[in-house]
Write a structure and sequence with these properties.
It contains nine helices and 20 strands. The protein is α/β, with parallel strands linked by helices.
């Protein structure tokens, strides 16, 4: 419009003046279409906020006219991750509502943000557009696929419960020594035979035991994997080991590209793995191994999970930086290789071509 007016003044063409008037009328009309605020109440209801990759995620969008007057037809947009779903909302009377069902593609593992839902008002020629947020976003977790590991297949992860610590306790399960009774001691711990011989009350002391802790260190540099599918397999391996350890009553610390995450439930563990991505800024596995002692100093088992481009020498160097008392296990994912098991010092190295092979690889004696 401004260009038409300027050229009309310079060239003196009536046609340009006419075009400028038409554009001005259209602009003023467009303003009328986008004025006003639609009073919608919007809710997003997901059948489940956690699904496994490949499963169908189903949701419901509920749009309600919260005003006392009818609202003309409008368009509603629902951002889903980097995608966008669009819904046409018809004219709604006061209190009327519209329900729309939608599905979310879950072909890959991710943490998807749904929303905020936006109402969009635009003129028929799309000269002007006005969008207003209507609700807070919600998250959908697409979990990695995991396999159930049978107890007979996890000998390398077992037999470490109840490791004794040096701390002395008055109440535990590992007997340590006897000492003279002091006021306030639990009388249930009095050792009567020793008290009779010593002619003084003697009570038992115990060594504190600790719950086994499993640290899982996941290699996260792109150069450590031959292809992205290898990384997805590695994430599933880490998830399968972690889920089994949690079911076995162990504590889990998951070490990713930039931080360590303590996980106490299966949902927390898989939520954390849903958002893990390859990162060029991540340190090599052998450098990350040096952080295990800081984040999981009491780890009784440390599991290294890496891609096919991390060789045995690198895994051995990474193992040397782990806590001395920890049992060390390295799992390399390599779809082009066969199932293998070997040892390097106190490090057990497993190579698995598929997720289904993990249980067999963890079984002793393969």
């Amino acid at each position: 419009m401004t260009a038409a007016v300027a050229l009309g003044l310079v060239l003196g063409w009536r046609e340009l003046w006419a075009a400028a008037w038409v554009l001005a009328v259209l602009f003023l009309a467009a303003i009328g279409f986008v004025l006003g605020k639609a009073r919608y109440d919007v809710a997003i209801d997901l059948a489940s906020r956690r699904v496994v990759v490949g499963e169908q995620a189903v949701g419901r969008l509920l749009v309600r006219n919260a005003g006392a007057r009818p609202i003309s037809a409008a368009q509603v947009e629902l951002p889903v991750g980097r995608g966008l779903a669009t819904f046409q909302v018809p004219r709604l009377g006061a209190g009327e509502e519209l329900e729309e069902l939608f599905t979310v593609p879950t072909q890959r593992r991710a943490v998807l943000q749904l929303g905020p839902v936006r109402s969009v008002k635009a003129d028929p020629l799309n000269l002007m557009r006005r969008a207003a947020g209507l609700n807070d976003p919600t998250e959908l977790y697409v979990h990695p696929r995991v396999v159930q590991l049978a107890n007979s297949s996890t000998g390398l992860l077992r037999d470490l419960d109840g490791l004794a610590r040096q701390n002395i306790s008055n109440d535990d399960i590992a007997f340590h020594a006897l000492r003279q009774y002091a006021p306030g001691d639990d009388r249930r711990h009095i050792h009567w035979k020793s008290s009779a011989r010593a002619q003084n009350l003697m009570v038992r002391q115990f060594e504190e035991t600790r719950r086994s802790q499993v640290a899982i260190l996941l290699a996260s540099r792109p150069g450590e994997y031959a292809e992205p599918e290898e990384f997805e397999l590695a994430v599933s391996v880490a998830g399968s080991v972690g889920v089994h350890a949690l079911a076995d009553g162990k504590a889990i610390t998951l070490l990713g590209p930039h931080r360590a995450m303590a996980r106490h439930t299966k949902g927390q563990l898989l939520d954390g793995l849903s958002g893990v991505e390859l990162d060029e800024r991540a340190r090599p596995l052998q450098d990350q191994a040096g952080t295990v002692s800081a984040h999981a100093p009491g780890a009784s088992v440390v599991v290294l999970v890496a891609g096919s481009r991390v060789g045995p020498e690198q895994l051995t160097r990474a193992s040397s930086r782990l806590p001395l008392a920890a049992h060390r296990l390295a799992v390399t994912v390599d779809p082009s290789s066969g199932l293998r098991r070997r040892t390097s010092g106190d490090l057990t190295l497993l190579t698995v071509p598929t997720l289904e092979d993990l249980g067999t690889a963890l079984r002793k004696g393969i």
